[in-house]
Amino acid sequence: MIFQTPAEFARAFTALPRLDAQARAAAEARNGQLTKPPGALGRLEDLALWYAAWRGEARPELRAPQILVFAGNHGVTARGVSAFPAAVTAQMVANFEAGGAAINQLARCFGASMSVHALRLDEPTRDFTSDAAMTPAELAEALSTGWNAVDPHADLVVTGEMGIGNTTPAAAIAAALYGGDAASWIGRGTGVDDAGLLRKAEVVGEGLQRHAAALSDPLEVLRCLGGRELAAMAGAIARARSLSIPVILDGFICTASASVLERLVPGALDHAVAGHVSQEPGHARLLKALNKEPLLQLGLRLGEGTGAALAIGVLQGAIACHSGMASFAEAGISGA
Ligand SMILES: Cc1cc2ncn([C@H]3O[C@H](COP(=O)(O)O)[C@@H](O)[C@H]3O)c2cc1C
Ligand SMILES: O=C(O)c1cccnc1
Q1: N or C: which terminus of the chain carries fewer CB neighbours within 10 A?
Q2: Ligand 1, closest atom to CA 89?
Q3: 280 falls in which pLDDT band (50, 70, 90)?
Q4: Does ligand 2 lie within 6 Å of residue 253's CB atom?
Q5: What is the tens place of the pLDDT at every residue in 28-50?
Q6: What is the 3-state secondary structure (H, E, C) of 21-55?
Q7: Which residues are catalytic?
């Protein structure tokens, strides 16, 4: 599907499939019989039930996790908002393709397929303090790239990103969607110093002011303040929902992209869990706003999908226990 306009995307992202309540009930009944004290596997139990409900199976398996890494460049880097030069985005894409990045190692660890999608790296989005980051056609193209990248046969999707400067648009999107001043949503990203932090707050504040009239529409928030890789992540997460494929969200940037969908259609992220909470201070705040409890807290501040990839391991464990354990009756074990 190629969306010509953001409105076409919005039309495709309506009448979303719901979780399978029957499968969930059957999975819950099964969970109650397994050879452990009730609730002893803690959040792993909730995780297995969530996965079963979205896969429509009482005893699901996780066979084909798909990691999608989207890359984009940002005009706002001219404002000195990152500790690294914009050229690093393309250099890291080459590193992903050569298998040398953190996400490559984690994808291999957890048996996930991984693909990298560079979005017009030689055409950075416009600096959002002076102009909308993208035209409607550019936004539609990036949403389409993400939408089409999802393998309909995948049974789990993780979206990651690479884009020097992109903690700044992520903060701007979060502020536009959930309110609060710019300073409360920014963080050090790749490691900017105190002066860099002040610049980021200023830049986000200017962007919010510049586009104030447009910010009641979530797709306009994404178009005016976002970036191509953020839009592609939103497109992929939306497509996964339309296919009832569960999603693990990564860090601040991924979660900011996903928030656009939740604002567009309340409940749009019911098929998604938060893989981790990153060091970027806005991330914990955004997860609270979305009412999502992160699975891991490891002090990561990398992106690329790394935190979500690690959480694939947790989900694998949850599903292995749920679907593989014996019941009390099968094992001949006495109940409480
Ligand atoms: C070598 C390198 C690899 C990365 N992988 C992810 N990021 C992360 O850092 C960037 C966001 O931080 P900021 O807004 O401060 O630029 C994004 O590219 C993100 O994916 C990286 C950054 C660098 C330098
Ligand atoms: O939370 C994230 O995803 C993140 C934080 C810092 C840099 N890159 C990504």
Answers
A1: C
A2: 18
A3: very high
A4: yes
A5: 999 999 999 999 999 999 999 99
A6: HHHHHHHHHHHHHECCCCCCCCHHHHHHHHHHHHH
A7: 304
Say how far apart CA 157 and CA 254 lie, in whole Å: 12
Q: Do residues 9 and 234 lie in contact, with contact meaning Cβ atoms separated by under 8 Å?
A: no
**Can you tell me which atom of ligand 1 is nearest the CA of 102?**
5
| ipTM of the complex model | 0.99
Measure the CA–CA gap between 314 and 296, rounded to whole angstroms: 9
Mean pLDDT across 286-303? 98
Token pair for 301: 């501040």
Average pLDDT, the chain: 98
Q: Is the CB of 278 within 6 Å of ligand 2?
A: yes
Rounded to two decimals, what is the model's pTM?
0.99
C-alpha of residue 189 to centroid of ligand 1, in Å: 7
Q: In the CATH hierarchy, which fold is given to the domain comprising 6-331?
A: Rossmann fold (3.40.50)
Interatomic CA distance for residues 47 and 57, integer angstroms: 14
Task: Give yes or no for residue 166 CB within 6 A of ligand 1.
Answer: yes
